[in-house]
Amino acid sequence: MSVDHRPVLDLRGLGFEEGAVVVVTGAASGIGRATATLAARSGLAVVGWDLDADRLAELGDAITAEGGTCTGQVCDVTDERSVADAWGATAAIGVPRYLVNNAGPPNSAPLSYVDGLVQGAGSMAIVTETWLERHAEAAEAVTFTASTGALLGTQNWYGPSKAAIAGYARSVAARCGGRPRANTVAPGFTNTPRTAPWADLATSIGQRNPMGRVGEAEEIASVICFLLSPAASYVNGVLIPVDGGSLLTTG
Q1: Is residue 4 one of the residues assigned to a domain?
Q2: Which residue among 5, 24, 43, 47 has its CA within the 20 to 30 Å range from the CA of 60?
Q3: Of the residues 98, 113, 158, 234, which is catalytic?
Q4: Active site residue 113
């Protein structure tokens, strides 16, 4: 029997300062959209980065309709010039204290190992290092989105790329002394527009999961936002699987 999902509506009790600015990359859909929505409901001013201008506009309208604050910024996180421009536009809105490094290519992308590492992990380093160069004193926390693939053997670039993300996050945590704190979430199979074509696979994975189902994007977003929050003030350098226990049955 599966356990029902009851989404968390906001996390205002975790100590966020009202109006503090958070950047969410890959914000237009899936886990990024859920994170941007929850962050806005929790009182943060969201700046959503994505390549899809139309979906960013729709996200902004949806968050504004709920009384939140969200500004869209078109950005290619693999391009240093685009990232620099996006940080400049973000700073004009407010000092970015939080960062959610979520954008990345899908598992199905036909990338070489080198290109997968560059587009997956390298892009997150570009975004983070530029943020630290400009806002190190204000930076409070960054959460990276990896995957349980980081902990498993995969036959393409995806697993190594996600492992590299977790390793980079630990490096940030070690060298920055908690300003910012840096942590990583590793989602298991999650219902998003990106995974929608694999409904049969989702059913199979859900049946093997101890909780009897796959995850929802809002459940990943809750952990991402918790790790950003002052409530996680002594959590630094960790990798947290958010998979309902699926790793327990892998092997």
Answers
A1: no
A2: 5
A3: 158
A4: no
